[in-house]
Specification:
The protein is mainly alpha-helical and 265 residues long. The chain is 78% helix and 0% strand. The protein has helices at residues 7-31, 35-54, 59-77, 84-104, 113-118, 126-145, 147-155, 157-162, 167-185, 194-205, 212-237, 241-264. It is globular and about 55 Å long. The mean pLDDT is 86.
């Protein structure tokens, strides 16, 4: 695997893999207005990292498990008298705080906390690439399999019930996919920027898409351009790679919004 000997090639492949995983899921996040949900799940991953290191297990497994637990708790409590935005705010910030405190108690463990908060795409190795692309294929395959049911449940839950589709089951599918994306993206953009990579490419694609399928394709292309272009800009200007990727994505969103405004005048 001589091509993977270059850290820049590994970083580029990692960025594209995360973009492909995040793009279709990000469209559902935008359609369902689940932005805070993604943020809370990402913040919980720091606690998952601390628990994984404490029990000497895989960080991917710890992050995935904690993301699933967070998503399940939110889904359970949101229908029991708690306002969803308040609940997500409490859980997101408290889980991040507990995670940071738990990390401080770890003894004999060398941990680059900044890499987990903001990503360290340049440190991606071949094993990380296998996890990232495996997660991307899993998420894309899962959404492809449930695409029609997910769209129906998203657009009209009553119609979904009439068609024999359980909206709560489709919500569980999205929860699982979101947990996988958080687990694979943490190495690339970090905990604090995962939600941005989910939402911004999808929001950028929205004005250009006439169909849901086209929106996911444009979002994937936008995410890949952001990852590759951000990597190049970070290399040129010696800036943090994860934030630079998100900054480029934000610039593309600004151009998309400007195009939409001009088309309405």
């Amino acid at each position: 695997m001589m091509i993977l000997d270059s850290f820049l090639i590994r970083a580029a492949l990692a960025g594209v893999g995360v973009a492909l995983a995040a793009a279709p899921l990000g469209c559902f996040v935008v359609w369902r207005r689940m932005a805070y949900f993604g943020d809370a799940t990402a913040h919980a991953s720091i606690l998952g990292i601390a628990l994984a290191l404490s029990f000497d297990t895989s960080i991917f497994v710890g992050v995935l498990a904690m993301a699933l637990i967070m998503a399940t708790v939110v889904s359970t409590l949101s229908g029991r008298g708690y306002a969803v935005d308040t609940l997500l705010g409490v859980l997101a910030h408290s889980s991040l705080a507990f995670g940071l405190v738990a990390v401080s108690f770890l003894q004999g463990v060398r941990l680059d906390l900044m890499a987990y908060l903001f990503g360290d795409i340049l440190a991606v190795n071949a094993n990380d690439l296998m996890v990232i692309w495996g997660g991307a294929f899993l998420v894309v395959g899962l959404l492809w399999w449930r695409w029609s049911a997910l769209l129906t449940a998203t657009l009209n839950p009553d119609l979904a019930h009439a068609a024999g589709i359980d909206p709560r089951r489709e919500q569980l599918v999205l929860t699982l996919a979101l947990a996988v994306v958080v687990a694979v993206a943490i190495k690339v953009v970090g905990v604090l920027l995962i939600a941005a990579l989910l939402i911004i490419p999808a929001a950028t694609a929205r004005p250009f898409a006439a169909t849901p399928e086209r929106m996911t394709i444009i979002a994937a292309v936008t995410g890949a351009i952001s990852a590759l272009g951000g990597l190049q800009l970070a290399f040129m200007f010696d800036t943090p790679t994860g934030p630079t990727i998100v900054c480029l994505a934000a610039c593309l969103f600004a151009l998309s919004s400007l195009k939409q405004l001009l088309s309405k005048t």
